[in-house]
Design a protein that fits this description.
Layout: E1 10-12, E2 18-20, E3 28-34, H1 43-54, E4 59-65, H2 77-88, H3 107-115, E5 131-134, E6 140-144, H4 154-160
Parallel strand pairs: 3-4
Antiparallel strand pairs: 1-2, 3-5, 5-6
Protein backbone atom coordinates (compact mmCIF):
# COMPACT_ATOMS: atom_id res chain seq x y z
CA UNK A 1 0.00 0.00 0.00
CA UNK A 2 1.53 3.28 -1.08
CA UNK A 3 0.89 6.09 1.31
CA UNK A 4 1.98 9.65 1.76
CA UNK A 5 0.59 10.14 5.24
CA UNK A 6 1.73 8.85 8.59
CA UNK A 7 -1.95 8.81 9.57
CA UNK A 8 -2.68 5.88 7.23
CA UNK A 9 -0.86 3.36 9.44
CA UNK A 10 -2.26 1.00 12.02
CA UNK A 11 -0.17 -0.01 15.02
CA UNK A 12 -0.70 -2.22 18.05
CA UNK A 13 -0.25 -0.77 21.52
CA UNK A 14 1.75 -2.66 24.12
CA UNK A 15 -1.47 -4.12 25.55
CA UNK A 16 -2.44 -5.58 22.17
CA UNK A 17 -5.05 -2.99 21.14
CA UNK A 18 -5.13 -1.84 17.53
CA UNK A 19 -4.64 1.91 17.09
CA UNK A 20 -4.47 4.11 14.04
CA UNK A 21 -1.85 6.79 13.76
CA UNK A 22 -4.75 9.10 12.82
CA UNK A 23 -5.52 9.22 16.57
CA UNK A 24 -2.43 11.45 16.86
CA UNK A 25 -3.42 13.90 14.12
CA UNK A 26 -2.70 17.51 15.07
CA UNK A 27 0.01 16.60 17.55
CA UNK A 28 3.78 16.79 17.26
CA UNK A 29 5.14 13.24 17.45
CA UNK A 30 8.50 11.92 18.57
CA UNK A 31 8.61 8.27 17.45
CA UNK A 32 11.41 6.19 18.96
CA UNK A 33 12.52 2.57 18.61
CA UNK A 34 13.38 1.56 22.16
CA UNK A 35 15.14 -1.26 24.01
CA UNK A 36 15.25 -2.26 27.67
CA UNK A 37 18.78 -3.69 27.82
CA UNK A 38 20.76 -1.15 25.82
CA UNK A 39 23.45 1.29 26.91
CA UNK A 40 21.06 4.01 25.73
CA UNK A 41 18.10 2.72 27.79
CA UNK A 42 18.46 5.62 30.29
CA UNK A 43 17.13 7.83 27.46
CA UNK A 44 13.68 6.68 28.65
CA UNK A 45 14.17 9.24 31.43
CA UNK A 46 14.67 12.08 28.94
CA UNK A 47 11.78 10.92 26.77
CA UNK A 48 9.51 10.84 29.82
CA UNK A 49 10.67 14.36 30.77
CA UNK A 50 9.79 15.66 27.31
CA UNK A 51 6.42 13.95 27.51
CA UNK A 52 5.69 15.40 30.94
CA UNK A 53 6.88 18.91 30.11
CA UNK A 54 5.53 19.31 26.56
CA UNK A 55 2.61 16.86 26.42
CA UNK A 56 0.03 19.50 27.37
CA UNK A 57 1.35 21.70 24.54
CA UNK A 58 0.76 18.97 21.96
CA UNK A 59 3.77 16.61 22.01
CA UNK A 60 3.21 12.88 21.97
CA UNK A 61 6.19 10.57 22.52
CA UNK A 62 5.57 7.12 21.01
CA UNK A 63 7.84 4.22 21.97
CA UNK A 64 8.23 1.12 19.82
CA UNK A 65 10.35 -1.65 21.42
CA UNK A 66 12.64 -3.44 19.00
CA UNK A 67 14.81 -6.53 19.47
CA UNK A 68 16.81 -6.28 16.23
CA UNK A 69 19.98 -4.88 17.77
CA UNK A 70 22.03 -7.44 19.74
CA UNK A 71 18.90 -8.95 21.33
CA UNK A 72 18.51 -5.95 23.63
CA UNK A 73 14.75 -6.21 24.13
CA UNK A 74 14.01 -9.96 24.27
CA UNK A 75 11.11 -9.80 26.78
CA UNK A 76 7.43 -9.92 25.89
CA UNK A 77 5.30 -6.77 25.68
CA UNK A 78 3.98 -7.10 29.24
CA UNK A 79 7.48 -7.36 30.73
CA UNK A 80 8.72 -4.44 28.59
CA UNK A 81 5.79 -2.30 29.73
CA UNK A 82 6.44 -3.13 33.40
CA UNK A 83 10.18 -2.44 33.01
CA UNK A 84 9.60 1.00 31.45
CA UNK A 85 7.02 1.96 34.04
CA UNK A 86 8.89 0.72 37.11
CA UNK A 87 12.38 1.88 36.14
CA UNK A 88 11.67 5.11 34.27
CA UNK A 89 8.10 6.09 35.17
CA UNK A 90 7.13 5.88 31.50
CA UNK A 91 3.52 6.83 30.93
CA UNK A 92 3.77 7.92 27.30
CA UNK A 93 2.28 5.47 24.78
CA UNK A 94 4.31 2.31 24.23
CA UNK A 95 3.56 -0.09 21.44
CA UNK A 96 3.99 -3.74 20.67
CA UNK A 97 7.49 -4.84 19.73
CA UNK A 98 8.31 -4.23 16.05
CA UNK A 99 11.10 -4.77 13.56
CA UNK A 100 12.46 -1.54 12.11
CA UNK A 101 14.75 -3.01 9.44
CA UNK A 102 14.62 -5.78 6.87
CA UNK A 103 11.73 -7.55 5.16
CA UNK A 104 9.69 -7.76 8.37
CA UNK A 105 10.04 -4.05 9.21
CA UNK A 106 6.78 -2.51 10.36
CA UNK A 107 5.23 -0.41 7.56
CA UNK A 108 5.28 2.68 9.81
CA UNK A 109 9.05 2.43 10.15
CA UNK A 110 9.47 1.79 6.41
CA UNK A 111 7.62 5.05 5.86
CA UNK A 112 9.58 6.99 8.50
CA UNK A 113 12.92 5.77 7.11
CA UNK A 114 11.97 6.71 3.54
CA UNK A 115 10.82 10.18 4.62
CA UNK A 116 13.86 10.99 6.79
CA UNK A 117 16.98 9.23 5.64
CA UNK A 118 19.94 8.71 7.92
CA UNK A 119 23.65 9.28 7.50
CA UNK A 120 24.79 9.34 3.84
CA UNK A 121 21.21 8.81 2.66
CA UNK A 122 20.84 5.43 4.32
CA UNK A 123 17.34 4.35 5.24
CA UNK A 124 18.44 1.66 7.68
CA UNK A 125 17.91 2.32 11.38
CA UNK A 126 21.39 1.92 12.87
CA UNK A 127 20.54 1.23 16.52
CA UNK A 128 18.04 1.51 19.36
CA UNK A 129 16.71 4.97 20.22
CA UNK A 130 16.70 6.37 16.70
CA UNK A 131 14.15 9.19 16.87
CA UNK A 132 11.80 10.58 14.22
CA UNK A 133 10.19 13.99 14.70
CA UNK A 134 6.82 14.50 13.00
CA UNK A 135 5.03 17.85 12.67
CA UNK A 136 1.39 18.53 13.56
CA UNK A 137 0.44 18.04 9.90
CA UNK A 138 2.00 14.57 9.78
CA UNK A 139 5.20 15.41 7.92
CA UNK A 140 8.40 13.66 9.02
CA UNK A 141 10.63 16.61 9.83
CA UNK A 142 13.86 14.98 10.97
CA UNK A 143 15.62 11.81 12.07
CA UNK A 144 17.95 11.89 15.06
CA UNK A 145 20.67 9.31 15.65
CA UNK A 146 20.53 7.08 18.73
CA UNK A 147 23.19 9.09 20.55
CA UNK A 148 21.15 12.31 20.38
CA UNK A 149 19.72 12.78 23.85
CA UNK A 150 16.01 13.62 24.11
CA UNK A 151 16.78 16.94 25.84
CA UNK A 152 18.88 17.95 22.80
CA UNK A 153 15.75 17.70 20.61
CA UNK A 154 13.63 19.93 22.85
CA UNK A 155 14.27 23.15 20.93
CA UNK A 156 13.28 21.51 17.62
CA UNK A 157 10.10 20.15 19.21
CA UNK A 158 9.20 23.54 20.68
CA UNK A 159 9.47 25.16 17.22
CA UNK A 160 6.78 22.74 15.99
CA UNK A 161 4.49 23.26 18.98
Amino acid sequence: MATDSIYDFTVQDIKGNEKTMAEYQGQVLLIVNTASKCGLTPQFEGLQSLHKELGAKGLEVLGFPCNQFLNQDPADDKAISEFCSLNYGVDFPMFSKVDVNGPTAHPLFRFLKAEAKGLLGSEKVKWNFTKFLVSRDGKVVRRYPPTTKPEDIKADIEKLL
